[in-house]
Amino acid sequence: MAETEFGPPIEASMWQADLFAHLTSHADAERDILDEYVTAAKQTKSKALSYLVDLLIEDEIRHHTLFEQLAKSLKTLAELSGAEPEVPYVDFQKVDRSAVLEVNQRLLTREREDRRELKRLQRELQGVKDSTLWSLLVDVMRRDTEKHIAILGFVDKHTR
Ligand SMILES: [Fe+2]
Ligand SMILES: [Fe+2]
Question: How many CA atoms lie within 13 A of 49 on its CB side?
Fold first, then answer.
């Protein structure tokens, strides 16, 4: 993947310039980790390792993208161009507050059900937890679910 391709913000304040440098260097570091995972997946003869590394690669691609979006958004804000930043402003309260609350509540309920279901499933997989990857995968999904609940929790907190 290419190195971060856009320059620092023009006329940024000190902290904005510092933060921009951190964000872009982190985006580049994420890309390096990604390259290492891709190499590892190609070189190993273990199907299990390559399967798991593929999962991590999906995450690392997302991390790289998120850092780029953060850096671009900071640049947009610092340059005071009035353009919409790629990472949107927190607008839950301003736009369609009751509809946001309603749909968010529904999603939160689903995620909490999912959390209970995954916990139950993991107990069922207790017997094969060292001989298969299944329990590990359910564990990963439980962690994802915690993340989903945290994201929806943020929305809820900032919409009320
Ligand atoms: Fe990462
Ligand atoms: Fe989920």
Answer: 10
115: CA distance to ligand 2 center in Å?
A: 8
The total of structural domains in the chain comes to 2
Domain boundary among 33, 67, 88: 88
Q: Would you call 68 exposed, middle or buried from its count of C-beta atoms within 10 A (0-12, 13-18, 19+)?
A: buried
The domain of 103 spans: 90-160
Query: Rounded to an integer, what distance in angstroms lies between the CA atom of residue 83 and that of residue 104?
Result: 28
* Residue 142 and residue 102 share a domain: yes
Distance 114 CA to ligand 1 centre (A): 25
CA–centroid distance, residue 111 to ligand 2 (Å): 5
Rounded to the nearest angstrom, the distance between the alpha carbon of 153 and the centre of ligand 2 is 13
| Of 36, 65, 88, the domain-final residue | 88
pTM metric for this prediction: 0.88
- Give, as residue ranges, everything with CB less than 5 Å from ion ligand 2: 148
pLDDT tens digit string along 111-146? 999 999 999 999 999 999 999 999 999 999 999 999
Quick one: pLDDT at residue 30?
87
* For the CA of 59, the nearest ligand: 1
For the stretch 90-103, pLDDT in tens is: 999 998 899 999 99
Do 76 and 155 lie in one domain? The reply is no
